[in-house]
Amino acid sequence: MDEFTEVTSSGWFSRITDSIKGVLVGLLLFVLAFPLLWFNEGRAVSAAKSLDEGASSVVSVSADKVDAANEGKLVHTTGVARTEDVLKDSDFGISMKTIKLTRSVEMYQWTEKKKTEKKKNIGGGEEKKTVHRYTKAWSSKTIDSSDFRKPKGHHNPTMAYDKYTRHAQTVSLGAFTLADGFVKKIAGESLVSMDAKALEAVTPSLRERTEIRDGAFYVTGSDKKVGDGPRIGDLRVRFKVVQAAEISVAAKQVGSSLEPWQSKEGNTIELVEMGTKAAEAMFANAKTAAATLTWILRLVGLLMMAFGVGLVFRPLVVVADMVPFVGEMLRIGTFFVSAAIAVPLSILTIALAWIAARPLIGGGFLLLFVGSVVGLVLLLRKRKAARTAAPATATGP
Question: Considering the entire predicted model, what is its pTM?
Answer without folding.
Answer: 0.78
